């Protein structure tokens, strides 16, 4: 389910902008992550003006406006300040003209500022709004950050996803992002981000125990507000032998979420197998692999050497 | 009565990591004990590490034994896996 809008207040809080005027209008809604740089509009060219976007004014716009007459400038800003315009943002701590203040006040639009440059603000706002406004997919599972790697645990209800996550959290090896329902969105072409639903944040349900607030019980170290979704570990209760589990770790199995494929490992859950340890090892294996170390290649090379040695011995015997 | 059968490995790669996996997966479906012998060393064919440790190359001769309630079916499955993968004659 996509969030359809973000308020200007949320934008201010999450991209560290300062409010110049219009504090009472911060509930205005932003519906697109695109940002408008109204440079040509300053000259009166409004054919492609996108009023529903946040309007970002930088040195170009401001310096051009200094050459304009008072009435011209006020008219241009009034045309920019539409019903749907969420906010004006002025970069680099530039002075804010009386004309902009007047036009914004008339249309009940807040003016925000920052000492950062336009490109930096643009990038911060696009990153934040892109993530917030991206379509979300809810997945049944547990998302934990294991040694900095976002691991999505999936498997049938009651198989022990939460209990395995809890053990890793207790050992200080993992932090909880979301239990039971993970909301996942695409940050960019190859990166998925997962977060809890607002209601379930920091909460875990342990069968037979009930609901625990992980932050309260295990401390701030044990939780994260969001993380990447980089690896899927699927817990299976199929018996070894019934199902062909990946023995060498080279199946190349993947899970696709919102068009992004992440590596998937299917791990059997059987009595006597410590699922938490297996998840820990799986996450570390994935990390070392990303660093370019591959145990299987090493093993295969040793096997080839052994075969050559054996063949030489056989040759002597023959 | 245990089953025993000799195989001559013809695959160019020998019993490398991937073919070893297939043999182990075939053997793991049965309750019988399955043993692979090569140059006087016996390993459990249900254990992939054991099989890979041997370094069975092309031209080697190995013996496979199955013992248990489904030993005949297990041997049939292994013969099948050996031939379908072009591993042995």
Automatic annotation (TrEMBL), chain A:
<dbReference type="Pfam" id="PF02603">
    <property type="entry name" value="Hpr_kinase_N"/>
</dbReference>
<dbReference type="Pfam" id="PF07475">
    <property type="entry name" value="Hpr_kinase_C"/>
</dbReference>
<dbReference type="InterPro" id="IPR011126">
    <property type="entry name" value="Hpr_kin/Pase_Hpr_N"/>
</dbReference>
<dbReference type="GO" id="GO:0000287">
    <property type="term" value="F:magnesium ion binding"/>
</dbReference>
<feature type="region of interest" description="Important for the catalytic mechanism of dephosphorylation">
    <location>
        <begin position="268"/>
        <end position="273"/>
    </location>
</feature>
<keyword id="KW-0808">Transferase</keyword>
<keyword id="KW-0547">Nucleotide-binding</keyword>
<dbReference type="GO" id="GO:0000155">
    <property type="term" value="F:phosphorelay sensor kinase activity"/>
</dbReference>
<keyword id="KW-0479">Metal-binding</keyword>
<feature type="domain" description="HPr kinase/phosphorylase C-terminal">
    <location>
        <begin position="132"/>
        <end position="302"/>
    </location>
</feature>
<keyword id="KW-0511">Multifunctional enzyme</keyword>
<comment type="similarity">
    <text>Belongs to the HPrK/P family.</text>
</comment>
<comment type="function">
    <text>Catalyzes the ATP- as well as the pyrophosphate-dependent phosphorylation of a specific serine residue in HPr, a phosphocarrier protein of the phosphoenolpyruvate-dependent sugar phosphotransferase system (PTS). HprK/P also catalyzes the pyrophosphate-producing, inorganic phosphate-dependent dephosphorylation (phosphorolysis) of seryl-phosphorylated HPr (P-Ser-HPr).</text>
</comment>
<comment type="subunit">
    <text>Homohexamer.</text>
</comment>
<dbReference type="InterPro" id="IPR003755">
    <property type="entry name" value="HPr(Ser)_kin/Pase"/>
</dbReference>
<feature type="binding site">
    <location>
        <position position="205"/>
    </location>
    <ligand>
        <name>Mg(2+)</name>
    </ligand>
</feature>
<feature type="active site">
    <location>
        <position position="247"/>
    </location>
</feature>
<keyword id="KW-0418">Kinase</keyword>
<feature type="domain" description="HPr(Ser) kinase/phosphorylase N-terminal">
    <location>
        <begin position="6"/>
        <end position="129"/>
    </location>
</feature>
<dbReference type="GO" id="GO:0006109">
    <property type="term" value="P:regulation of carbohydrate metabolic process"/>
</dbReference>
<keyword id="KW-0067">ATP-binding</keyword>
<dbReference type="GO" id="GO:0004712">
    <property type="term" value="F:protein serine/threonine/tyrosine kinase activity"/>
</dbReference>
TrEMBL record, chain B:
<dbReference type="InterPro" id="IPR050399">
    <property type="entry name" value="HPr"/>
</dbReference>
<dbReference type="InterPro" id="IPR035895">
    <property type="entry name" value="HPr-like_sf"/>
</dbReference>
<dbReference type="Pfam" id="PF00381">
    <property type="entry name" value="PTS-HPr"/>
</dbReference>
<dbReference type="InterPro" id="IPR001020">
    <property type="entry name" value="PTS_HPr_His_P_site"/>
</dbReference>
<keyword id="KW-0762">Sugar transport</keyword>
<dbReference type="GO" id="GO:0005737">
    <property type="term" value="C:cytoplasm"/>
</dbReference>
<comment type="function">
    <text>General (non sugar-specific) component of the phosphoenolpyruvate-dependent sugar phosphotransferase system (sugar PTS). This major carbohydrate active-transport system catalyzes the phosphorylation of incoming sugar substrates concomitantly with their translocation across the cell membrane. The phosphoryl group from phosphoenolpyruvate (PEP) is transferred to the phosphoryl carrier protein HPr by enzyme I. Phospho-HPr then transfers it to the PTS EIIA domain.</text>
</comment>
<comment type="function">
    <text>P-Ser-HPr interacts with the catabolite control protein A (CcpA), forming a complex that binds to DNA at the catabolite response elements cre, operator sites preceding a large number of catabolite-regulated genes. Thus, P-Ser-HPr is a corepressor in carbon catabolite repression (CCR), a mechanism that allows bacteria to coordinate and optimize the utilization of available carbon sources. P-Ser-HPr also plays a role in inducer exclusion, in which it probably interacts with several non-PTS permeases and inhibits their transport activity.</text>
</comment>
<protein>
    <recommendedName>
        <fullName>Phosphocarrier protein HPr</fullName>
    </recommendedName>
</protein>
<comment type="similarity">
    <text>Belongs to the HPr family.</text>
</comment>
<dbReference type="InterPro" id="IPR002114">
    <property type="entry name" value="PTS_HPr_Ser_P_site"/>
</dbReference>
<dbReference type="GO" id="GO:0009401">
    <property type="term" value="P:phosphoenolpyruvate-dependent sugar phosphotransferase system"/>
</dbReference>
<keyword id="KW-0597">Phosphoprotein</keyword>
<dbReference type="InterPro" id="IPR000032">
    <property type="entry name" value="HPr-like"/>
</dbReference>
<keyword id="KW-0963">Cytoplasm</keyword>
<feature type="domain" description="HPr">
    <location>
        <begin position="2"/>
        <end position="89"/>
    </location>
</feature>
<keyword id="KW-0813">Transport</keyword>
<keyword id="KW-0598">Phosphotransferase system</keyword>
């Amino acid at each position: 389910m996509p969030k359809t809008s973000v308020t200007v207040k949320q934008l201010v809080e999450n991209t560290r902008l300062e409010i110049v005027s219009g504090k009472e209008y911060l509930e205005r809604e932003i519906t697109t992550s695109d940002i408008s740089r109204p440079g040509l509009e300053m000259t009166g060219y409004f054919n492609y003006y996108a009023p529903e976007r946040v309007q970002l004014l930088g040195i170009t716009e401001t310096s051009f406006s200094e050459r304009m007459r008072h009435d011209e400038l006020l008219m241009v800003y009034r045309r920019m300040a539409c019903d749907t315009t969420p906010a004006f943002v002025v970069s680099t701590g530039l002075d804010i003209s009386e004309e902009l203040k007047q036009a914004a006040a008339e249309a009940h639009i807040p003016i925000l500022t920052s000492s950062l440059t336009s490109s930096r603000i643009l990038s911060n706002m696009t990153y934040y709004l892109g993530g917030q406004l991206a379509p979300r997919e809810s997945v049944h599972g547990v998302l934990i950050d294991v040694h900095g790697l976002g691991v999505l645990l999936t498997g049938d209800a009651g198989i022990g996803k939460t209990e395995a996550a809890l053990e890793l959290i207790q050992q200080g090896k993992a932090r909880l992002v979301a239990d039971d329902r993970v909301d996942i969105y695409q940050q960019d072409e190859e990166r998925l981000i997962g977060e809890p639903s607002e209601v379930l944040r920091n909460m875990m349900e342990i069968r037979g125990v009930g609901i625990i607030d992980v932050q309260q019980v295990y401390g701030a170290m044990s939780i994260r507000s969001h993380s990447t979704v980089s690896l899927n570990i699927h817990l299976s209760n199929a018996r070894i032998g019934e199902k062909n589990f990946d023995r060498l770790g080279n199946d190349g199995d993947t899970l696709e979420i919102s068009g992004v494929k992440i590596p998937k490992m299917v791990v059997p859950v059987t009595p006597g197998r410590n699922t938490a340890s297996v998840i820990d090892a799986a996450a570390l294996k994935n990390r070392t692999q990303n660093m370019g170390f591959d145990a299987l290649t090493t093993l295969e090379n040793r096997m080839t050497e052994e075969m050559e040695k054996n063949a030489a011995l056989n040759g002597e015997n023959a | 009565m245990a089953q025993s059968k000799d195989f001559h490995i013809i695959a160019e790669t020998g019993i490398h990591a991937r073919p070893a996996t297939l043999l182990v997966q075939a053997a793991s479906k049965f309750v019988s004990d399955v043993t692979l012998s090569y140059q006087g060393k016996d390993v459990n064919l249900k254990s992939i590490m054991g099989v890979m440790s041997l370094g069975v190359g092309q031209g080697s001769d190995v013996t496979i034994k199955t013992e248990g309630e489904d030993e005949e079916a297990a041997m049939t499955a292994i013969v099948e896996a050996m031939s379908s993968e072009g591993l042995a004659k």
